[in-house]
Amino acid sequence: MGLISELSDSLGAVGLPAAWDRACTGRDVSLPPTSANYLDAVRSTTTRFVGAAEGLKLVNVNAEKVQPYVDSLDVAKFDKYVKHVNGWSRSLPLIFDSVAQNLNLVAILDLLQIGSGFRRELHDAVNRGASDTINFGCISLHISQTPLDARGLQALTLGDISRHFGIPLLGEERPMSKGNTAVMISEASLLRPLAEVVLGILHDTGRRLEQAGFASLADFIIKMCAEKPTSAHLVQKLVSAFPSLRDAACIGGQPVYLFKKAQLIAYDICQKFGKTDAKFDFPDIGNMTLFADNVVPAVMQHHGLIEPNADIKTKIANGSELTLEETTAMRAASIVAAQLVVDFANSPNSGFEAGAIPVSQATLDNFWRYEGKDPAIRSIPRLVCKNTVYF
């Protein structure tokens, strides 16, 4: 079982969908040393990137906006929104045979929190956004009693993904030849690459688990947390083991670590199971960073905490797809700016009085994520990046 990190590098993408292979852009980015704290590595590399000249050409962090933002923060609203988001994984309308089965589904839900770049196409085709599509599909898999262990993940087909997640594989029909409607053909759906990425994530995760001797993703997580019950340890093990969680980019020859989904898995497991099982009660939960995706940077841009350059701003406003470098810059800047907010809110001279929930990057993420659903903010354009398995 200790060989899973080696297997991650040696298995490659043989037999996996090409869409997953293309979207797994961080697979070959070198990771921090095993002795490093991976949460601190996210902070240090994003700070370096945003502070470098190359980062500044893409997006600025407006430090002067931090104090007025904290001064205006509605504490009651903050507590309400964070509590709501924290409760999502505890409110699934499902019955589980065991805690391990429940934990497995929570982890797979977070593993698959992708598809934000297809938000418009999903709403047009199935009237659901990316997160709702993933939640819908995972609930469907559970209700249908589809095995979600290591072997079960590998047995899924593209048709299974289409059926359970409601992602169409074919577009509209058209005549094969002009003027002849006797024979109709269908083009591939614009959403087919998303279905292929979902399948690739599940297949790759399943085979790596099986090769390393783990029965399921839950089995892996339980054993890693038994080794050392901290979020930093679990994030390191998840990122090292599974390319679909290696949320990193190499920009200007330097790695930038974001690790969104791995942190989200650790956070949700702590929230859901930490009160009843000590190995999931991570003492360093407050050291997590934002789960930076397409929503939170847009909300932070709205508040003036980060400001992209003119090209990125135009792309976001038009709903155009951003490059890997541009999305990395926006996501990294959101982490850097969030840390400034956390530091000021928790400084003894700020005058800010927190409510029931402390201000950390993770709780700010929850707040901004749900704030993004407010009518006044919901219409704000979000980041679009289709070629990614990370958000």
From TrEMBL:
Catalytic reactions on record: queuosine 5'-phosphate + H2O = queuine + D-ribose 5-phosphate
Keywords assigned by UniProt, alphabetized: Hydrolase
GO biological process: tRNA modification
InterPro entries: Q_salvage
EC number assigned by the record: 3.2.2.-
GO molecular function: hydrolase activity
Keyword Hydrolase attributed: yes
Enzyme class at the top of the EC tree: hydrolase
Keyword Hydrolase: yes
Assigned protein family: Belongs to the QNG1 protein family.
Main function: Catalyzes the hydrolysis of queuosine 5'-phosphate, releasing the nucleobase queuine (q). Is required for salvage of queuine from exogenous queuosine (Q) that is imported and then converted to queuosine 5'-phosphate intracellularly.
PANTHER family: QUEUOSINE 5'-PHOSPHATE N-GLYCOSYLASE_HYDROLASE-RELATED (PTHR21314), QUEUOSINE SALVAGE PROTEIN (PTHR21314:SF1)
Entry protein name: Queuosine 5'-phosphate N-glycosylase/hydrolase
